[in-house]
Amino acid sequence: MTAAGAAVLAVVAFSGCGGGGSGPPKNLSLQGIKIPTSRLTQQVTSLCAVARQAHTDPAGANGAFYGAGPHDSLHLLAAILAGGHHTQSQALLDTMMTFENDLAARPPPSATGPDADALVASANVGLQSLKVPPQRCG
Fold it and tell me: Could you tell me the pTM of the whole model?
């Protein structure tokens, strides 16, 4: 488990989601800190680009995922989910671990692309659990 993963697990008991109203929430809450929903949805959209790259250039997807990519925001999403949606949080972390293991392999396995697709799907399930519309990959 990475240090970031351990940090996420440390805040699990204190996580929750916020928002309210009839539309999608503009912010989500983690330990009382407001996280703009757009920050997470933008990163899931960037995960779509990582998934496309994972199909054509699995080794190159590593930089796109960890660099300025969605890795950290996915951990943030998992932490937010953990408060009231533990199953979705754990599924997201498990799916992310599978994809991270693919990226760490040399060479990455042929499952890297499909595992990236599964990660997009898991992130979208998490968003939907928080009443945030899923992000479509183009």
Answer: 0.84
